Amino acid sequence: MTLLRKTKYALMAICFISLLATTSVFAAVTSNELGTHGGYDYEFWKDSGGSGSMTLGNGGTFSAEWSNVNNILFRKGQRFDETRTHQQIGDISIDYGVNYQPNGNSYLTVYGWSVDPLVEYYIVDSWGTWRPPGANSKGTVQVDGGTYDIYETTRVNQPSIRGTQTFQQYWSVRRDKRTSGTISVSEHFRAWEQHGMPLGNLYEAALTIEGYQSSGQANVYRNVLSINESGSGGSSGSGPTRVEAESMTLGGPYASRSYHPFDGVTLYANGDSASYTQYFANDTHTFSLRGASDGPNLASVDLMIGGEYKGTFYYGDEHPATYTIENVRHGTGHQEIELIVTSDNDTWDIHLDYLEIH
After folding, report:
1. How many CB atoms lie within 10 A of CB 29?
2. Which of 152, 187, 204, 210 is labelled catalytic?
3. Does the structure show a pLDDT above 50 at 5?
4. Which CATH number is 128's domain given?
5. How many domains, in total, are found in the chain?
6. Which range has the worst mean pLDDT, 70-84, 183-197, 278-292?
């Protein structure tokens, strides 16, 4: 990439950022609300007392602040239609990173509900001054490089997604705190069921910050929820997995967020990349990438899975298009997916929108 082109794109990036700052800032949520933003479902919930604010970012990202609350939850993930079990939906995992600063009692957790039976569940990776839930462990599950204690508690006549009810709570609480990594949500579901703790049809799965009689703040800078084929080899039943490029981790000398010709990222030079961790139950998938060149010259980006080259996506001009690499063989379990430029010749840059896995 020439110095002139680097300067040009640096100025373009500044212009786009300035435009976003003046025209497209998403207002903070400060009262109970649920909705959809950046392809994710979100919810802000607080009972009486104190104050809180949730600012929604790109993809699954968000920031949260709370002060002198009784109970507050900030969450962003996916809501389901309550007609399917987790086995029918498929394997759920969340790749996340959080700057987490609680002052008092708080949880950094994957949170959700099931119905029939009504269950509130937590998969806790970090907490504030008190380790939940204050009960005797029913067993353990070792997953994602750590040991989690499994708990079951009963809530009597308490608020729920079905009004005031008596219901069970299921917990997995990590013994060693962490604030980034991958949470294999469905592995916890299976472990609970092995301990006589059944789930019904899923209502939601969301990365959540909860505060209880406390204050604090958190910046969720990475939150990528993936749904794949179930461990039994069946279809997820929810169509292809789509991951927005702006939710991926950027690497290389110049890779940056961009807003034209779509919300995504731009890779400018050799070594620029966008990557994330994906869970695979099966070893063969088809990959479709929407992108565009920055002009009339042919642009390309390589697909790497688990450090191995799997093919190249090509884009002939500046018009967004989707190109596909079919029947890609790869490892199972958690694998790093990387989209990386290796053949830049200073005549093109490449814009990436999203990756779909079929």
Report:
1. 21
2. 210
3. no
4. 2.60.120.180
5. 2
6. 278-292
What pLDDT is recorded for position 239?
54
Domain boundary among the residues 195, 228, 261 is at 228
Active site residue 210: yes
Q: Which residue has the higher pLDDT, 114 or 58?
A: 114
Q: Vertex 155, ends 150 and 159: CA angle to 5°?
A: 125
Q: Which of 324, 251, 316 is nearest to 289 (CA)?
A: 324
Cα–Cα distance, 241 to 229 (Å, whole number):
10
Domain of 352, CATH number, reads 2.60.120.260
Do 118 and 260 have their domain in common? no
Find out whether the peptide bond into 198 is cis, omega within 30 degrees of 0: no
Out of 120, 204, 246, 338, the active site residue is 120
pTM of the model: 0.62
Do 247 and 137 have their domain in common? no
User: pLDDT tens digit string along 96-108?
Assistant: 999 999 999 999 9
Per-residue buried b or exposed e for 87-112, using 16+ beta carbons within 10 Å of the residue's own CB: bbbbbbbbbbbbebebebbbbbbbbb
Q: What is the pLDDT of residues 315-352, one digit of tens each?
A: 999 999 999 999 999 998 778 999 999 999 889 999 99
Distance of CA 273 to CAs 228, 293, 296, 352, Å? 23, 15, 22, 10
Please state whether beta strands 33-37 and 40-46 pair in parallel, antiparallel, or not at all (unpaired): antiparallel
Catalytic annotation on 33?
Answer: no
